[in-house]
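Give me a protein, keeping tokens residue-aligned:
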Amino acid sequence: MAGHIGIVACSAEGAALCYRTICAEAPALMGEHCHPEITTHTHPLSQYMFHIRTGDWEGVAELMLSSARKVAGAGATFAICPDNTIHEAFDLVAERSPIPWLHIARVVAEEAVNRGFARLGILGTRYLAEGPVYPDALESAGLAALIPTEDDRERINSIIFEELVNGVFAEESRLYLNRVMERLRDRGADAAVLACTEIPLIVRPEDAPLPVLDSTRLLARAALRRSLEMEPPGAS
């Protein structure tokens, strides 16, 4: 019996992709139509944005903890959050959470090391790109982070919050993200992190100018592995 996965969601599209990835890839490991038990909870994105825009990471942490308590109450044995930006509050959450967590940026860093990358371009919200989540996780793994220019950060932020979180996937925006990756490549990046959980829904790895690290699916796969490694309560 696999461990019960708790998904602490923030934005709908990224959380849905994470959930679907777990359910779609589990049968290859667990058998036909089989996947771990999963419980998801989310507060409205508007509540998160209220705190994010003012830099109130304690407020973000309280929302994450509220969701963690709910999924734990439903039986989840560990938690994941398919949202890169709010991982800035991760340390405030982990020390008070009723269940352990996986950290999305550390999962990405492990994959980057395994694939031999050294300098990663970060594509995400302006808050994420300018914050400590990826620099800290990558530095701990001996990797470097490279962020887009200020103009590109603002445009990517608009694409995420005006389009992607609302399920709008415009070809113009996809091509723009490719151009950003080209500029990052020209500055020395050897891979790009899709560090907004909605960006994998619009970027096509087969025509991206850099190898991509899909944070959403990598987190889902890490959760699936963790679930299969866990011994259920009461097992001997």
The radius of gyration is 17 Å. The first strand starts at residue 5 and ends at 9.
